[in-house]
Amino acid sequence: MLNRKFLDDKCSGNDPGRVRDIKKCPTEMANIVEPKNEFCEQQNLVNQPEMMLHEEEKNEEQSTPPYFPQPDDDLPAKDEGPMMPLGPWATGRVVYSPINGMTGLRPVVDRYSITRFSPAEWRLHNKSFFDQSKHTINDAKFVEKISRENNMKIYKDTDKIQLDNRDKLSERSSLIHKWKTELERALFEITEEIELLEGEHRRVKQTLSVLTIPESISGEFLEIRTKRMESDLVRDEVDKELIKEVALCSETRNMLNNTCKIIETQLLELKTAKTRMEFDLTDKTDAYEIDKNCVGLSNSSSIILKHPGATRVPTEQSTPDGYNYFTKEALEMGEAVKNKSVEIRSTLNDIYLKIVKDLRNQAIQVDAVLAENISQTEMVFQHLEKELTQCLNQLSDTEKLIEELRGATKGLDDALKVAQSRLSDRLNRRNVESCRDTSQSGLIEEVKIINDNLSLMAKQLKIAEQTQAGLVKSRGDLEREIIVKKKTLFVDRDRGQLLRSYYPSAEALSGH
């Protein structure tokens, strides 16, 4: 198009300052079009699609249509001599203006047509137009071929990547299933161990409960004997053996309490390990289901959708090494805790044998010396009654203190609700109004102070309640001792032997 416009300007005489002969326009046009043909030849060497139809162009050149350039068109034009601007063979009217002078020639205009180009130029124009169209078609065919080849390669690569990732997902799901199976086995074993250890814990509790019987018998019997008449208040063999029995019961209780604490600690460790493995098993079950569903997805699945943000990598994701280490650590911890529990259970039988043997031997010794030293006792009633009155007064004061602390706690709860409600309402502020101002800081500080005060008051209330429980127990002991000390002087013979008859058997002391 640029060459055609330039040719029109040349032939129409629009080139300022020069006057050209119209007969020279075809030659000049040929010279102008020639570089374009050379450029096309260079493009044929670069562009592959035009090389594909090289043979078709040769066939077309052998039979040149009449509307394409002919061999005679390349001959030099015959010189017809000088021609005047006007006449039968006029080339056009000279364009002249006083300012610009001679500027060129106007085209020949008559009543039939306006002549600008020669037939050779027309044929050359046809050839260049068809060449341009052919080049465009060849480019389109080349683009089509390359596009199809690229599409085939892209689809092939996509299918390969999809299959590879499906295999990786399948391997990952197999790994998850393996760990899931290991966790299920470990959970089954640790659940059995928890049940066995809980049985031992109940056994220890039962032994502690039964141990209160010999403790009560020995303690009550000692208390009864301490209230004998002054003439009979002697430290005989019965007192010594009873004291030994009380000390033995105390040592036994301490041992059982320590054993109970060890079992409770071990149960806590077992349940902690079990909880961790259960959480891990739950996560692995969900992950296994997700990966299994991912393996089953295909291009024809009805549930596939576009998820633009799915390629993000969460910062909390674990690494494969960390993943394996976490599961191995959970399994190893569970195995270690289970082995420790088995070892603890294996030592309980020896503890029970020693406890039962010592208690029964001491009980036999007490019964033997009691049969030889039966005495009568009398209680010091006034002293015990005084102690009981103090205990009751202190218990009443403690109950009043507990009520006051509970009322104060309720008042602080209301103040805490007010502060928290204000903070909650202020969270509804929008945009820039959600400001961290001094009111916000003050309310937060108020909540903190109230919580600290509530914790302090709760601690004081707990201490007061524990004191109350201790006072209640003391009141019961004193009342029991007062009743015991009202017994007759024949308490050693009648009451003492009757109490000793309730001493628990070896089977009961062993927790069965």
Automatic annotation (TrEMBL):
Annotated segments matching region Disordered: 1-20, 54-79
InterPro entries linked to this entry: Tektin-like (IPR048256), Tektins (IPR000435)
Pfam families in UniProt: Tektin (PF03148)
Coiled-coil ranges per UniProt: 381-408
Main location: cytoplasm
Subcellular location: Cytoplasm, Cytoskeleton, Cilium axoneme
UniProt keyword terms in alphabetical order: Cell projection, Cilium, Coiled coil, Cytoplasm, Flagellum
Superkingdom of the source species: Eukaryota
GO cellular component, one term: axoneme
GO biological process, any: cilium movement involved in cell motility
Family membership noted in the UniProt record: Belongs to the tektin family.
Name this polypeptide is given: Tektin
Naturally occurring in which organism (per UniProt): Aphidius gifuensis
